Amino acid sequence: MAATTTHRITIDPVTRLEGHGRIEIFLDEEGAVDRAYFQVPELRGFEKFAQGRPAEDMPQITSRICGVCPTAHHMASTKALDALYQVEPPPAGKKIRELIYCTFMVEDHALHFYFLGGPDFIVGPQAPAAQRNVLGVIAKVGVETGQKVIAMRRKLRDLMALAGGKPGHPVFGLPGGVARPLSEEDRDKFRSVAAEAVEFGQFSLEAFRKLVLENSDYVELIRSDAFTHRTYYMGLVDGQNRLNFYDGLIRVVDPEGKPFASFTAAQYVDYIAERVEPWSYMKFCYLKPVGWRGFTDGAQSGVYAVAPLARLNAAEKLATPLAQQAAAEYFATLGRPVHHTLANHWARLIELLNAAERMKELADDPQITDPNIRTIPTATPREGIGVVEAPRGTLIHHYVTDARGVIRKANMIVATQNNAARISLSVEKAARALVSGHNVSEGLLNMVEMSFRAYDPCLGCATHSLPGSMPLWIEVRSHRGDRVALLRRDSDGSIRRE
Amino acid sequence: MDPSGGSDPRRARLLGLGNELLADDAFGLLVADEVAARVPELEVVRSSESGFALLDPLTGVARVIIADTIQTGKAPPGTLLFFDLDELAGPPAGAPHGAGIREVLALGRALGLPVAEQVWVVAVEAADCATLGGAMHPAVAAAIPAAVEWIVAAARGLKRPDCARPERSPR
Q1: Cβ within 8 Å, pair B91-A18
Q2: Which domain holds residue B50?
Q3: CATH number, domain at B131?
């Protein structure tokens, strides 16, 4: 249906009710879905906020931007400072950073799989709404497994605190290296926990096989068209095109899985463009060389994805043996590249194992206890760009400073901006499948939530804000813009129709 | 165990949640600073983390008092709410994104972890928790002294969360 037949509604994202995800569905004259938008609260004002601050403060400041992944912002910011001061950390400095980073990755992925993604894959999409929560997950996997996850988390966080400062407030990264070396005693602790983490990763993949892969309904759901988009994929790779969370080239593959681009963080502006839509504060990223063709998939559209699914697609292989074996099984089951959004959960577990194995390699590395951990910067700063793979996808920090290192311009591309256009595709597809006329089924809430959880978007939504989880509202509007239906799930889990 | 948690502040902990970079979201941290100065024997923890990271500050003490922001959209900015987390209706929802305090607490209890038996909340209705470097709404800033007074009294066993409750959603 042509856009001209759709009545445009001006949506003010600044609403007192911005603590929720709002999805607006516009119908055409025949009552079919014309467009669907999702609104989420997000952080504003980063550039203005950064201006005039010493760049050196940014690893500490930006780590507090997100309450979920402070370590990712700390690391991307520290790497931007390396570039800004044109300084290369010594090998031990880099390895300690990567070791802490992999520890963080294992922790975040473990919590996500069990406690956030769990309602969909462990409890199941058909389970009653009242069970699709963290208690339902524990009922299904058992208290013992739940305790195992919490014990693993405790050990990983203790290691992060040991080597990097409080996990909520990491302080280890400095331009040119890290703040303190790793002692032999620290290394032994990392070795022992890394070995446990590898076992934990294998245990979790085995649990996934039993709970999901042995259930043909689940596999069918993962493969279903409703959760499939054929887009480009982005992720960091090492010199051998193997996935790396901490460093490397940004590699992009096309919807056929063929290499499309490979570039350094410093070149990101040549490849990643940001687009503003009138209905959202969020900037939607797309691939500049392909161009923007609207919210659509395929090789002609610059829409791409990041995060576990995308990273496995973008890399040729994984650098560690057990994870590589798991990835081979994954691609043999789902094809390559994998276009199914829900496969993110499986990919996340493979990455967990990859990060755990990498932790072990780094902890065993003789060089990691070398006391030479920092190259002191001497060059005059000008511009620096840093990139890491956050658990939720590629994260870029970009600072331009004066000669004293005071920020004049700053930009940040967070994981979810990269994914935002594809998330919109998912919302619209769900709406097309499940909205007919004024009838909105509760299945739509489920479907949208399942997509959200698979992407695990990082929304600047101050998720600790009470009373808890993010409410979700779905509004359906006619072609004249009148609201014809509202389906809302509030933060206490109650579902209401208006 | 005394269900009120007794009047001994050492059996309670104040958890100031928020982010001083994000306008009104600094509220919980500022409240925590003031209470720490007033009641030195009360354990005060500050956190800008969210999700499962909040498991730790909810563990190892009988009662936790949380100071935080809330966005109900049903009250003007600066309105204070005092409630017991367990009085909120319904089981924790599966969240489309992240985990809230209720999910974290429910998880801790389900796993038999030593999480707080009682969680009292002092929350201020916030206008903006998303602008980096944003200014605090004057009404939110003005609510700090009353929140501090309430927490000081609650820590000494003189107050219970019965002043006001968030509106329950119809089930």
Answers
A1: no
A2: 9-155
A3: 3.40.50.1450
ipTM for the predicted complex comes to 0.86
Domain boundaries, chain A: 3-41+421-497, 88-227+340-376
* A287-315 b/e (C-beta count within 10 Å ≥ 16 → b): bbebebeebebeeebbbbbbbbbbbbbbb
d(CA A393, CA A388): 8
Burial A439-465 (b: 16+ CB within 10 A, else e): ebeeebbbbbbbbbbbbbbbbbbbbbb
CB contact under 8 A, A469 and B98: yes
Question: Which residues of chain B lie closer than 8 angstroms to A15, CB-CB?
Answer: 73
B95, closest residue in chain A (CA to CA): A469
Q: Which two tokens stand for residue A159?
A: 């290691």
Measure the CA dihedral A76/A81/A86/A88, to 10°.
-60
Q: Rounded to 5 degrees, what are φ and ψ at A116?
A: -105, -45
pLDDT digits (tens, 9 = 90+) for A358-412: 999 999 999 999 999 999 999 999 999 999 999 999 999 999 999 999 999 999 9
CATH class of the domain whose range is A88-227+340-376: mainly alpha
pTM of this prediction exceeds 0.80: yes
Which tokens belong to B153?
A: 């009294």
Q: B70, A466: Cβ pair inside 8 Å?
A: yes
For residue A460, give how far its alpha carbon lies from the nearest alpha carbon of chain B (Å): 7
